[in-house]
Each structure stands twice: as structure tokens, then as C-alpha cells.
Known about the structure:
It is a single chain. The chain has about 425 residues and is an alpha/beta fold. It has 2 domains: about 5-30 and about 280-410, Beta Barrel (Lyase, Ornithine Decarboxylase, Chain A, domain 1), CATH 2.40.37; about 105-275, Alanine racemase (TIM Barrel, Alpha-Beta Barrel), CATH 3.20.20.10. About 30% of the residues lie in helices and about 25% in strands. It is built from 12 helices and 21 strands. The chain has helices spanning about 20-25, 35-45, 65-75, 85-90, 110-115, 125-140, 175-185, 210-225, 255-265, 280, 315-320, 410; strands spanning about 5, 10-15, 15, 30-35, 55-60, 75-80, 100, 120-125, 145-150, 175, 190-195, 235, 270-275, 285-295, 300-305, 325, 335-340, 350-360, 365-370, 390-395, 400-405. The strands form 3 sheets. Strands 4, 14, 15, 16, 17, 18, 19, 20 and 21 form a 9-stranded mixed beta sheet that branches. It has an 8-stranded parallel beta barrel with strand order 5-6-7-8-9-11-12-13, surrounded by 6 helices. It is globular, with a radius of gyration of 23 Å. It binds ligand LLP. Ligand LLP binds near residues 58, 199 and 375.
Amino acid sequence: MDHFIYKDGVLHAEDVSVAEIAAEVGTPFYVYSSATLARHFRVFDEALHGMDHLVCYAVKANSNVAVLKVLGDLGAGMDVVSVGEYLRAKAAGVPGERIVFSGIGKTRGEMRMVLQGGIRQFNVESEPELAVLNAVAMELGVKAPITLRINPDVDAKTHAKIATGKSDNKFGIPIAQSRRVYAEAGQMDGIEVVGVDVHIGSQLIDLEPFRAAFLKVRELTEQLREDGHNIHRLDLGGGLGIPYARSNEAPPLPMDYGQVIRETVGDLGCEIEIEPGRLVAGNAGIMVTSVIYNKAGEGRDFLIVDAAMNDLIRPAMYEAHHDIIPVIEPDVGVEPKLMDIVGPVCETGDTFAKMRAMPPIQDGGLVAFRSAGAYGAVMSSEYNTRPMIPEVLVNGDQFAVIRERPSYDEMINRDKLPTWL
Ligand code: LLP
């Protein structure tokens, strides 16, 4: 459930008319619902009820500081993959002891900053990273709390670009080598082993890969304890999918995912961490755009909108589906037409949907892309010198711009001419 529904024939975000936001902010823009963000966080929190746990929101999904603050104020932890994300989490008031640091390419500089600023744990992904972290921690005279991210060699059955748990992916330490690496970590003066980490992919629509991975984590935990390690924390990653096409998709519910966790690792006496991103933010956001032109092609109708692949790259990058709906509710009985919905960028990949059934929408009319709250704004760029689009947060009947559209001057003045030109 989300909070984007028609009221009196106009799409609303909670109690605010999307048309009203468009009139004030101009299109295109993203709009997020605080109530939906909060609801999704709580659903995860409740799914782990009865187990010692921390839901660490994956900041990469939507890293606007206001979004992080909505979640952080509810007690969420944060999963970050760069110092930039770490500083955003801090700016939202989340203390270091609720922040975990993931990622395969952490640099010395990042390690140093995060160790000084406070961190719950590093999820270490390789032996060289472990050695460098040990050295940095020793230089600072501290111990870095770590898990090792293991690669369980499980097929997540998702899009190849976002599957991470197979042995041929770049992520994690192969499970077969992990006991040896834990033994090394156990000897290091700058390292404190606290647990095990796994993350097998994103947009999973089946619970079985999770079960398979968590059972491997369980087995490894038991072995590591026999080896003398104090494993008291399990980070089980993120990845639970969301319905993008509402008419025909019903991914598993967080409650059922929580049940898989309970069944597989619930009795190990470990604190459980999870890192959901998409399920928290995805359906808490929409992207709103205006129709520039209705263009009749040869046997095809094109709806050219003012948002483009630089604003929402998921369709171009992953062939992702987003439901697209008019902001003004169509009258009952209006015949939908098949059309391609495209942006203004000069490449064919700038196509949001092909042969999509839509009610006719006049030039200037507003349409909304659903499920755009995760991996939307964060993956945007200024390709074609298009300004990054603003983000708006709604809370009940209030709304505020939480990131402004830059001016053309701001964009262009970032370029510097060398002295010889
Ligand atoms: N933890 C780690 C270590 C991750 O790499 C990710 C996502 C997550 C947690 C959160 O996964 P989620 O719950 O959001 O599925 N840009 C792509 C998705 C990339 C996901 C990368 N890692 C997309 O638009 O579909």
C-alpha cells in the first residue's frame, strides 16, 4: 500500500494534490510520501519482531537527507557504501553506531573518516580490504568492528545487472575460503570480528534464494563459533522486490521474508540486521512529468514527456517497467490507446515504455511514473545539460522542496576554463 491515490479526480500524494505541486514547482519532479516511507520501515521492523534486530535502510536507494531523517527519526539504521552516503546519514542525525559500511572498494581515506566518526561495522568484501582496514585501524589505535561479506554462490533469480550472490559476481568472499579469512581476521590487532554478512541481489521476487543463502550463513556461523569466533551479529543484506506492474506482480511480503529469517537463523542468538532499500523507498515515490507533444508516427503514437532517461534511468538500463498514470483521473469508459512514452534525449534508449495502453493525454497534461522513489533521483545525471529535477517531500497536507532544481548558471559555472583558453 502507498499514499498515492486519486481524490476528487486528481492524483494526490497523501493529502496534497500532485497537480498543485506541479503548478508550484514545475515539471519534472520527484515526490515522496513520508507516511509511505514510515509504513515500509515499520513493516520490516515488525517482520523481525521478537528478534534482536536493526533495520539498516540502504541509503543508495534514495539518499536525500530529508528522506534519511524520516527513517532515522523512527530508529532506522543506515547501510552506506561511500563516505558521501555516510555523511548524509550523519547529516540526518543518525549516529555512527547505527551505520554499517558496505561496498567492495572502500578506500583508506574513507576507512579513516568513518573510524573517526563512529561506525557500527564494516562489511568487508576481500582479503586486501581486510589488510588495509587493519592497518588503518592500527594507525588510529582503534579496533574496526567487522563482518565478512560472504558470497554464498546462490542464484537470486533476478536481473543479471543486480544479482550479486553467484561466485562469478564481484561481491564478497567465496564461502569456501571464508573460514580461512576469518582465522586471519581473528589474528589482527586492528580488527574485531562481530559477525557474518550476505547480500545476494536486488528485486528478488522469490523467497527461496534468501532461504538458501541464510542457511549457508547459519552453517558458517556454527563453524566459525567452533573455530572460536564470537559471532553475534548477522547482516542479511537487502533485496526484497516490489510490485512494479501492479496488475500482475505480487512479490513476497516482508512478514514472510521475516519468517524465513526466523526459520533459518532466528535461534542462533545473533542480532539480525537487514538492509532494505527498494522496498522502503520504491513505492514511496513517484516522478511527475508533463506531456510536451503527442506525436503521431508511422503506425505508432509517441507521447513525448519532459522527463528523460537522465532523470529516471531504470527503463533504459534494466528494461524496467514503471506503471505510468495520468495525474487527472480519466473519465470512466475512456478508451486507452497504445503508445510509446519517450523522453526528449537524443537516443532511442530514452524510451520509458513501448506500446503502453494509456488514456489520451493532451499536450501539457501531467503523468506520473509510479515506484520511482528508489533508484530514481539517486541515479540521475545532467546528460544533455538537463538540470537534475527537484525532489519534494509530502507529510499529510504539507509539502516541501527537499532538493531544488539547479539554475542553468549553477550547472554551467561548475565548468572551469583553463588559463590557456
Ligand atoms: N545492501 C547491499 C550491499 C546492496 O548492494 C544493496 C543494493 C542493498 C543492500 C539494497 O538492496 P534493495 O533492498 O534495494 O534491493 N539500481 C538498481 C538496484 C541496485 C541495487 C544495488 N544494491 C535498480 O534500479 O534496480
